[in-house]
Amino acid sequence: MALLSIVIPSYNEEQVLPKTAAILKSVLEEENIEYQLIFVDDGSGDDTWKVITDEASKNPWITGIHFSRNFGKEAAIFAGLAYARGDCCGIMDCDLQHPPRTLVEMYRLWEQGYEVVEGVKRSRGQENLLYAAGVGFFYKIMSKATRVNMSRASDFKLLDKKAVEVLLDMPERNTFFRAMSSWIGYKTTSVEFDVQERVGGESKWSARSLIRYAFTDIAAYSSAPMQLVTGAGVLTFLLALVLGIQTILRFAMGHAVEGFTTVILLILFLGSIVMMSLGIIGYYIAKIYEEIKRRPRYIISKTTEKC
Ligand code: UDP
Ligand code: MG
To answer: What angle do CA 37, 42, 45 make, to 5 degrees?
Structure first.
């Protein structure tokens, strides 16, 4: 029988984790699916690791991985994938916002021969207006960059072993799982699901961390901001033509001494464009520097597996 591995990134989830494990157990056993749960403790500050080890000591089909510090959800997903032994591998949140029943649906599609099954949000759950607008803008850029419609994409997926291996072979350090798993291709289908309320604990995202995440992802997947620099250059060149002609005409007519205000405005305007462009280019250089350092994506300090 086929084995389904489920990777569950967990950061400060002591409250919900036992519930998640119990619900997955009952749903998957009811469906007669052989499974393995991999909880990746992303350097939690609470008792998450203790809860995981407790669960793992009671249940042989639970594996726990503990990071040396918080490396982020992306790193946790990739660590879990590296440990997955299954013929297919599901990825879901620890807070039960991704319904386990949908996972079963995904598994059945995998059985029918699909290699990548994506969870697509039917509704985005409760989000305030400003957040929704920010998210909308972000996904517009990302969809353009990856040529995949990302507006309702989520990290809730089920991948065939082949797809998992391909993802693990990708060398980049700035990963964006959601986009990478679409980019690899393969026989793909999607399943709609309703984002559930968080069962307990709280969301780990602050406005600041979301914005930082968005910039990292945009830089990792798109060179559009660099083209913006070129665009700004073209625009100022056109402006230079118009002003240049005007200045020469005025000089010819003998009014050349005026226009000090224009000079100040031009210096300020061009100065800020140059600075911002340098900032954008600098950001990409910083990302390249980060990549070439070839640091590991995460550091595992403990696992529940006995070697
Ligand atoms: N998570 C993680 N590392 C982090 C932040 C979050 O592993 O640094 C996990 C978290 O435990 C949860 C999933 O990622 O299983 C989604 O996080 P959360 O529910 O906070 O995000 P939201 O659902 O609000 O987007
Ligand atoms: Mg959540």
So the answer is: 120
> What fold characterizes domain 3-129+148-202+296-303?
Spore Coat Polysaccharide Biosynthesis Protein SpsA; Chain A (3.90.550)
Atom 18 (ligand 1) nearest CA = 203
Q: Domain map of the chain by residue range? A: 3-129+148-202+296-303, 224-293
d(CA 69, CA 285) in angstroms, rounded, equals 26
Query: For residue 203, which atom of ligand 1 is closest to its CA?
Result: 20
Global pTM value = 0.81
Segment 105-119, tens digit of pLDDT:
999 999 999 999 998
Which of ligand 1's atoms lies nearest the C-alpha of 77?
Answer: 7
- Helices and strands per DSSP (H, E), number in the chain: 10, 8
Give helix 129-146 / helix 224-252 axis angle, nearest 10°.
90
Distance spanning both ends of the chain, measured CA to CA: 25
Tens-digit pLDDT profile for residues 37-57: 999 999 898 899 999 999 888
